[in-house]
Amino acid sequence: MAKWVYLFKEGNATMKNLLGGKGANLAEMTNLGLPVPQGFTITTEACTQYYEDDQQINDEIMGQIMDAIVKMEEITGKKFGDTENPLLVSVRSGARASMPGMMDTILNLGLNEEVVDVIAAKSGNPRWAWDCYRRFIQMYSDVVMEVGKKYFEELIDKMKADRGVTQDVELTADDLKELANQFKAEYKEKLGQDFPTDPKEQLMGAIKAVFRSWDNPRANVYRRDNDIPYSWGTAVNVQMMAFGNMGETSGTGVAFTRNPATGEKKLMGEFLMNAQGEDVVAGVRTPQHIDQLKDVMPEVYDQFVEICHTLEDHYRDMQDMEFTIEDKHLYMLQTRNGKRTAAAALKIACDLVDEGMITEDKAVLMIDPRNLDSLLHPQFDANAVKAATPIARALAAAPGAASGKVVFTADDAKAWAEKGEKIVLVRLETSPEDIEGMKAAQGILTARGGMTSHAAVVARGMGTCCVSGCSDIVMDEENKVFKLGGKEYHEGDVISFDGTTGNIYDGALPTVDATIAGEFGRIMEWADKYRTMKVRTNADTPEDAKKARELGAEGIGLCRTEHMFFAGDRIDAFREMICADTLEEREAALAKILPVQQGDFEALYEALEGNPVTIRFLDPPLHEFVPTEEDDIKKLADAQGKTVERIKEIIDGLHEFNPMMGHRGLRLAVTYPEIAKMQTSAVIRAAINVKKAHPDWTIKPEIMIPLAGDKKELAYVKKFVVETADAEIAAAGSDMEYEVGTMIEIPRAALTADEIAKEAEFFCFGTNDLTQMTYGFSRDDAGKFLDAYYDAKIFESDPFSRLDQDGVGKLMKMAIELGKKTRPELHIGICGEHGGDPTSVEFCNTIGLDYVSCSPFRVPIAKLAAAQAALNSK
Ligand code: ADP
Ligand code: MG
Ligand code: MG
């Protein structure tokens, strides 16, 4: 028979998966001999079983709960529903990973009319007794029966007003008794039944409610944001009450052993006398600083400080604790490794190493890579944020802080930025033509679109702050004005927004820049020691490449050349190329682009100082480049000596029903070999030139052909790429070596990787396309239905941000195995957005990739994740 229920003294800290974090640590504290009110934990597996049994607690689990109650009664010497010595308990949720405030807790369970009278009389403290009872009715109604909290709060407010008092503590025993009666009446009115009096019935109701709370909407969202699987379930802790509301010698508090905002090694926390549970955080009264406990109750304070030392020493990490003082007796109710800001995480890890508490590898393991994101972008000055009130909130699509003058078009963004203005681009939504303007902006705000909209994806790639899907905006792009927060904003008006919180502010907020110095630098150094997988960056410009190098990138894993064609002087020549009618016209246009492109690549090789650079040839469908405005079409027609009609005809001819699966990638090279030839010449000439200037650098161009699906099509393109490259090398009298590889982003390429590897000298997984094509849905449209998929528990996360290891991952494993069979020296990387996602990075390490490549701002995140993956695999 499975064991579904554990007494605290039967568990320990290593049993988090089964007992949840709270339960495992209550057990551990019990074993350490700390004062913990005793009780038992119903396992996370029981929660899973509850859902499997159609939200019923089955007989076996029920039986074990009943046995545990009997044992708990023996241990505490109290009995449920007893009129002599009644047992009152809390029923608390607690998952494997802490999810603060996401699930529910009920306190003072076990009370009824009879029991409350007994404890009121026996304790000589009727105020306490009735305070417990009214709290219990309130919480039970809210959590178990889902009668809204607000009805009870209204009654409390009314009572306070009637009595002419402002604080809960000023209500007398009689007031609280009356409140309890009002609450019960409210309960009956709302639910048409009496408030339950049988403690065991109350207990079962509460346990079920905690199980149910695992599936409440806020818990579901929290889990998705924090990569916590639904399948884990929550444990339920049933614990004897410690009463902080017995009067002025009782109280309750929370504390951190170190400062969770800064990491400073100093006890931080708050407490309230004559209070219970959440009173401290709920702000019913202003709590006192933990240091003041020294004056209020010196002995309890000393004991608490002692316990803090014991716990930090034991867990070797900063602890976040809850405690209650019941008539001068201290009880510990919770401890866990405290949540902290990224800055605090770095400081605490370094301090613990310096204090000899942990080793460097432990320090590397204790930092959540996801957290670093907030340190890698310019940030608002924390004090300024505190003082400001947001005018609206949008999706936090790409982290960072943006502050500047509003512009409404990408062209304006560029023009204003060139004049030296700090601007933010505000649009209904963005499209590929907006790239230049998006780059020029401090931040991008869109009224439409979700986390995977064009604006969001591109902004994350560029490391530009973006908030998207701000539905409150009333937008009039044509007249360059929008309404928000009751105010009209015109071009040039200043706003600020925070890509980490999604908050939007009126006016300018001051920002501070990000650097990898001090503790951040130390941690990254340690990470590099343990890491085996390389981390490259996706960078299209020398500036991005430099930034990425500063942040520790070891090469470029993906340089998307199409972005190079958007800049002012090139787009014209490129449009001429697209709208050419003959090969000669096309070659003439390409001849104009060649030197510019060569210059781009030279600058990249310079920036990379001998580190590898993978250059991907033109990928997107050509219609993304053609003009849409009449003026631009006219200009193009004039430049080519063609009629506007002819140009429009050509543009119309580019129309595709499904461009993502259309004429793009190496299909462009098959139909227009001269484009790939031009790009080959540009790469090789650039490499030869830079090598000449820096003979000691290793320069071995990696030419990457996108979107191959068939060995023969790759062979077809590779042939003229190699001919062109060899001719350039021969003409320069050089001995430059180079490689031609491909992206694996079409399932067929993965399935036939042994064949593909006969041509390709390296693979790089383009997991954005590979995910898109494996699932058969477009990432630009997935936003429309993903929410429904989350609600229906079909998906727990967005497969475009977190790699689908079962499906896409299987194709990757297959491609690696097949590819290496043909070509053992094949080097393999990944360059989709997944390359910067910690969980996906861990997977890439497991399947043996040589490197991951991600946007510059995610390089330190990927490096840390790679180090953790290496350490965890040992
Ligand atoms: P959360 O996980 O949201 O913090 P908890 O289960 O920790 O929820 O409980 C909420 C509050 O009730 C906390 O302040 C906690 O200290 C308090 N509490 C829980 N159990 C007891 C108990 N047995 N005695 C006294 N206070 C308790
Ligand atoms: Mg808690
Ligand atoms: Mg692709």
Automatic annotation (TrEMBL):
Residues 17-291, 303-351 form the Pyruvate phosphate dikinase AMP/ATP-binding domain. Transmembrane segments: none annotated. GO terms for molecular function: ATP binding; kinase activity; metal ion binding; pyruvate, phosphate dikinase activity. Its cofactor is Mg(2+). This is Pyruvate, phosphate dikinase. The active site is at residues 454, 831. The keyword Phosphoprotein does not apply. Residues 422-502 form the PEP-utilising enzyme mobile domain. Pfam families: PEP-utilizers, PEP-utilizers_C, PPDK_N. It catalyses: pyruvate + phosphate + ATP = phosphoenolpyruvate + AMP + diphosphate + H(+). Its EC number is 2.7.9.1. Substrate binds at residues 560, 616, 745, 766-769. Belongs to the PEP-utilizing enzyme family. It is an enzyme of class 2 (transferase).
